[in-house]
């Protein structure tokens, strides 16, 4: 149970940081469930560093982290490039399946990437490969810290 809580909290914090920095750098805020898509932000709005996440993301990050634990131990000896590639593919899979399940359950996925040129069914963005690559490698460090608890 502790592992689930740590992974869920880590994912939430990472997402809040990501969305705040994304808005600061790009000047747009992603969909917050208001059907407006990408919203242009003023300089003052960008500097607020408003990040966000969804309650649904906690179990998604938590369960995803738990699913990856045995794999992390199996891949530990691999070069970082190979491990990062595996994490990227698996994170895309969890994001896609989780998003599709939430669509079926609630009628809508909390995130909608359809505005991006590089999306698949609005559920994943292929231009996020570097983000998920780095996130997967960071999650290895979180797993090591959790395993040492």
From TrEMBL:
Location (main, coarse)? membrane
Q: InterPro entries, per this entry? A: CmpB_TMEM229
Which UniProt keywords are listed? Membrane, Transmembrane, Transmembrane helix
Where found? Membrane
Q: Per its UniProt entry, which superkingdom is the organism in?
A: Bacteria
Q: Which residues cross the membrane?
A: 6-28, 49-68, 80-98
- Asked if the Swiss-Prot or TrEMBL record annotates the protein with the keyword Endoplasmic reticulum, the reply is no
* Signal sequence region: none
Which topology term describes how it sits in the membrane? Answer: Multi-pass membrane protein
Q: Does the keyword rRNA-binding apply?
A: no
Which protein is depicted? ABC-transporter type IV
Taxonomic path: Bacteria, Pseudomonadati, Myxococcota, Polyangia, Nannocystales
């Amino acid at each position: 149970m502790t592992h689930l809580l740590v992974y869920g909290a880590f994912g939430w914090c990472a997402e809040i940081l990501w969305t705040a920095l994304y808005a600061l750098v790009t000047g747009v805020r992603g969909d917050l469930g208001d059907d407006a898509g990408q919203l242009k932000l003023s300089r003052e709005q960008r500097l607020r560093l408003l990040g966000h996440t969804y309650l649904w993301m906690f179990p998604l990050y938590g369960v995803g982290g738990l699913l990856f634990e045995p794999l992390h131990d199996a891949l530990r000896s691999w070069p970082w490039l190979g491990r990062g590639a595996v994490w990227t593919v698996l994170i895309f899979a969890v994001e896609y399946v989780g998003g599709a399940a939430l669509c079926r359950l609630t009628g809508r996925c909390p995130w909608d990437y359809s505005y991006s040129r590089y999306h698949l069914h609005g559920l994943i963005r292929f231009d996020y490969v570097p983000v998920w690559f780095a996130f997967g490698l960071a999650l290895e460090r979180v797993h090591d810290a959790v395993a040492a608890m």
